[in-house]
Queue: 2 jobs
Job 1
Amino acid sequence: MRYLENNFDVIVVGGGHAGCEAAISAARLGAKVLLCSLNLDNIALMPCNPAVGGPAKSTLVREIDALGGVMGEAADATYVQMKILNSSKGPAVRALRAQSDKKEYMHYMRNIIESTDNIYLKQCCITDLIVKDNKIIGAIDEYGNEYKSPTVILTTGTSLDGRIFIGLKSYRAGRLGEMPAIGLSDSLRKLGFNVKKLKTGTPCRIDKRTVDYSKMTIQPGDEKLHFYSFKPNRPIRKQVPCYLTRTTEETHKIIKENLDKSPMYQGLIHGVGPRYCPSIEDKIIRFASNPSHHIFIEPEGLGTYELYIQGFSTSLPSDVQTKMVRSLPGLEKAHIIKPAYAVEYDYIPAVQTSHSLMTKLIKGLFCAGQINGTSGYEEAAAQGLLAGINAFNYINGSDMLELSRSSSYLGTLVDDLVTKDIEEPYRMLTSRSEYRLLLRQDNADARLTETGHKIGLVDDVQYNRYKEKQLCIQNEIDRLSKTKISASEEVNSILAEVGEHIDRGIRLSELIKRPNITYDIIKRIDYETEMRNLSEDVTDEVEVLIKYDGYLKRQEIQVEQATKLEKYRIPDNIDYSTINHISTETKEKLAKIRPKTLAQASRIGGVKPADISVLMVMLSK
C-alpha cells in the first residue's frame, strides 16, 4: 500500500558526493529538497581513497568552487596533507591533491547539509519512479511511502543493484557493510532505459601500528600550502606524511599463482573496470615486463589507525590478500582491518541524457555521478552540482545551464558522457581536453565565477573578492609591461643564479617570459615589484598569463574555429534516415545520440568529416 509522505521540489536519490552537491545547490537556490540515502551515517563517505584532486580532478574541484559548490571548501577544512603534483611541468598539468581526514570530511559535509534551509533527510531506498506523460511526478521507497516531486536526481553510486566480490564469493551490497539499492533498476528498464553493468574496486585497509615505515620512502606534504576554495579564512592544519613502497617479485608470484581465484579472471564479473585505475592483478598481467609497481601508504585520518594502500586494489580472496600485503617492504607484519573487494553495479549510459544531465526519455529526471558511467569523487560532485542547478532551473522554467568544452573541464566531462558511448568507468584526464592550457586549475575562478554569481550560488562577498583579484592581475600585467630594468651588475648577479643574463635594459614582462625566470626572481631585481606584496594567487596567474601568452592566444583561435560549428544547430525532430550521401553507420549514431550542434556531431565516434560536410550543406539550406 502506498502512503503519500510529502511534496518536494527536488528529490535526490543517494547521499554521496554527487548527491550532496545536488541537494545543497538546489536548496540554496530555493528549492525544497528531499535527500534520500541508504545510510544517513555515511553521507559524503569516501569509500575508496580519502583524497580529493590530482591531475584534471583538481581543476574540477576548483570549478565546483567557482560555481558555488562545496567540495573544495570541505577538502580545505579537513586535509591532513596538501601537495602540488607535476610542479616542475607546465601549468596545464599542475594539480593540487589533498589527503583528507575521512571522518572529518563526512562530518563537515553533513554539517553543511543540516545547516542548509530546505533540505530534508530520509534514510530509505527509492525503489520506483512515478511517471506520467513522460514526466517525473514522484518516487516511492521500499516501505511504500510516496514522495511527490516534479524532479528527481539519481546519484546512486555503486549501490544500484550492487554486488561485492571477494575471491569466488559474492553477495549483494553497494559498498562493504552496506545494503544495495534493489528495485530501481527494474523501474528504469520498464521506463525504457538501457541499463548496463560497470565494475570498480578498492584496496584493503591496514593497521598503522603493524607497519615498518623505516623500509619505505617518506612522502611529505608541501611546506607552501595551496587550497581549492577561493573563499578566505582557509585553515592551517598539521600535515602528516604518506609513504612509498613497491611490489616485489614475491608479490607478483603470489598473484599469478592465485588468478584462478579471481572473480574477474574466472568470468564472474561481467562489468568493465576503470582503465586508468586497474586492480593490482590487472597491472601484473597487462604490464608483465615491469618488475615492480609503486604502492603508496596513506592515512585515512588523524583519529584512526586505518591506512589506505593506494594502487593495490584487488578482488582476490582475503587469505591471498594477506600474503600479498605482507610481501611488500615494510608490511611484513601488517594486519588487515578491512579486506579489498570489487563491486559490480548498474549504470545508465549517459548518451540517454542531455548536456543538462536531464534524461531524454523522462522530463524532470536527472542523473549524476557513477550512474552516468563515471569514476571518482570529483567527477561525481561536479555532475551533482550541475544536476542540482538544472533541476531548479527546470521547475522554474529557466534556461538550462549547459557548459561548453572550451569553458571548463566540467563542460568537457559532460560533453564526453552524452556524446560518446562509455564502455568503462570514465575518469577525467588532462588529455581529454583539447583546451587544457586555457582550462587550468589556477584560473577556474576567472572562467566560472561570473556564471556562479549569475545563477545565485556565489554570494556578493565572494564575487567582489574575485573582481578585486582580477583587477590586481590586470594592473600588475600592465605595470610589468611598462617597467624596464637596467642591465646592472647587481641585476645580472641575481639572474646568473638561474643561468640568465641581460646585455641591455629590458621590460619585466619580456624578462619573465624566459623559462628560468619566475615572479620571485622579478621581485628580487625590482624594488617596486617586491613592495607590492601581492598574494600568491595573483602573482601565479600573472606569471602564467605573461609567460604563456603566445600559446594561450593560439588556443583561443582554436576555440573560435570550433565555435563556428557550434553555430550550426540541428533540429530536434530531424529524421536522419532520409538524409542522402551519409553512411548507414553515421545515420544510426546520429539517431542514437541526437546531437544538438554540428560540433557535437563531429565528436561522435564513427562520424566522418565527409558526413559533417553533408550535414553542413543541408543545414545551410
Job 2
Amino acid sequence: MRRFASLRAMSYLRPKFMDLWSSYSRRDFGADVIAGFTVGLVALPLAMAFGIASGVTPQAGLYTAIVGGLIVALFGGSRTQIAGPTGAFVVIVASVVSRHGVSGLLIVTMMAGVILIFLGLTGLGNAVKFIPRPVVIGFTNGIAVLIASTQIKDFLGITMPENPSEFFARMEAIWRHLDTVKPQTIAIGVATVAVVVLLPRISKRIPGAIVALAAGTLAVVLFKLPVETIGSRFGGIPAGLPHIDVPAFRPDLILALLPSAMTVAILGAIESLLSAVVADSATGDRHNSNAELVAQGVANFVVPMVGGIPVTGAIARTATNIRAGAKSPIAGVVHSLTLLGIVLAFAPLARFAPLGTLAAVLLVVAYNIGEWREIPKILRLDKTDKAVWSATFALTVFADLTVAVGVGMALAALLYIHRVSQTTTVSLVTPEDLRDGRAHALQDKTIPPYVTILRIHGPFLFGTTDKLLQETSDMTQYAPIVILRLRNMTAIDATGLYALEALSDRMKSSGRTMLLCGARFQPARLLQRGDLIDRVGEKNILPNVDAALQRAAEIHESAAMSDGAAPQLSASTPSRAIISA
C-alpha cells in the first residue's frame, strides 16, 4: 500500500525529463542541440537587459537564465519550457531593490520559491486559473508600460543622478534632463529596434537581438563611440563560474517582504503555466502543472545563491525553442550550457556592449508582451469587465504592482459573485415555454455521424474555462462539424469568451466547422461584443439545436458536392457534456 502511494506521488510530480528515454533518438538529440543553441543566443541579450532593468547587474540576469533554466529543464513539467528572467518581474524586483537592497531581493526570491513549491506539492497552483482575463490583461498592459518607461533613459542616453521608482516621478525626471540626450545613443537604439523588428522578416532562424548586440558592441569598439556601456556602469561581467553564496536570512524582514514574495510567486505561477499551455498547443503535448510549479519553486530558491533574480517560464523564448525544432527538455539544458559557455569564453567583451542596445531590445519586448490588441476587445465588453481592467492597469502603472495584484484578486472575487448572482432566475412555466423548449431538447433528435454536440452547463466564467480545454484536447475524437450547445450556459465573462474564441481557432485549424446554438440573453449579448461571431460566421450562430442540425446538414451536403462524394464516416459520434458550474 505504501509503495502504491509513493508511486502515485511520483507520477503526481513526475518531471518530463524522466519520460525522455522511452523513445528518444539521435535525430531528436540533434534537433534539441540546434534549438537549445538558438534559444541560448536569443536569451543572452534579454537576460542581461532584464538584470539591468531590475536594478541589479547584467550577470545577475545571466546567472538566473543559466541556473534557473537548467533546473526547470531537468525537473519541470513541460517538454519545451525555457525559464529565465522575464519582464513580469522587472517592476517588483526594482521596487524591492530600491527599498531593501539586493539582500532583500534575494530573500524575496527564496520566499517566492518556497511558496511555489507549496503550491505545486498541494495542487493549489490551479488557483491561478481563478484570475479573470481583464485582470491578466490589465497586469500585462501595465507591466509593459512600466518596462518601457524604465528604458527611456538608456535609450536616449540621458544622464540624470536620480532614478525614481514611481512612474510619474520617473517621467518628470526624464523630462527635466532631456538636455543631456546623446545622439549617438539614440542612433544605436534606433538601429537596434530596426534590426530586431526587421530581421525576423528576412530569416526567423537568426536572432535579431544577438545580431543587434554584436553590431552595437562592434560599433563601440571600432568607432570609440562616447556612449554608456556595461563596462562604464558595471565594470563588465566577471569571467568564470558564479560564486555560491547563501544569503543571510533575516527574520525581521519576513513580514515586510511577504507581500512582494506573494506577488513574485503569483506572477511566476501565472507566466510559467501560461507558457506551458502555449507550448502544449504548439507541440500537442500536455504539461504537468504541479511538477512545473515545484521546479519553478526550486529554481527560485536556488538562484539567489548565485546572485540571481526571480525566474519563471518565458513565453517568447519557449516559442522560439519550439520553432527551432526542440523535442525534449534537453533543449533547455543546451540553452543553459550555451549561456554558460558564452560567459566563460566571452565575458571580457561584454564591457563594450552599449546600454542603448539593451534598452532598445527591452522596448521591443515591452511592445510584444503588452497584448495591446486585447484592449479594444475589453472595451467592447460590459462595464464590470472594463472597470476591472482599467483599475488593474491604473494600479499597476501608477501605484504598486503588489497593490495591483491584491486589488485585482479582490475584484476577481467580486466579479465572480456578481456573475453568479445573475444566473439565478425565478419565473412561471408557461405553455409558450414548453413549446419553445422542444426546439432545444436533445432527447428526440437524431444526431448524424458527421456531427458532434458539445454542451456547457452552468456559468462559463474564469476558473471553469480549463474544462473546455481538457475536453477538447484531442480533436481527433470529434466529427467534421461540432455543435456547441449553449442553452444551459447561464453566464459568460471575458475569460469564457476568450476560451470560445480559442476553441474556434483550434477547430478551424483542425479542419472542423463549429456551430453555436441556444445562447441565452446574457451570453448572447456578450458574444455580440466579441470577435467570436466574426470567427465562427454569422450563419453558424443558431437559435436552437433544430436549426443547428439543419445548418450542419447544409454544410455537409455542400462539402459532399465539392468533393464529389460524401465522406465515409465509420460511426456516430455521441454528444458530450462539459459540466462547468
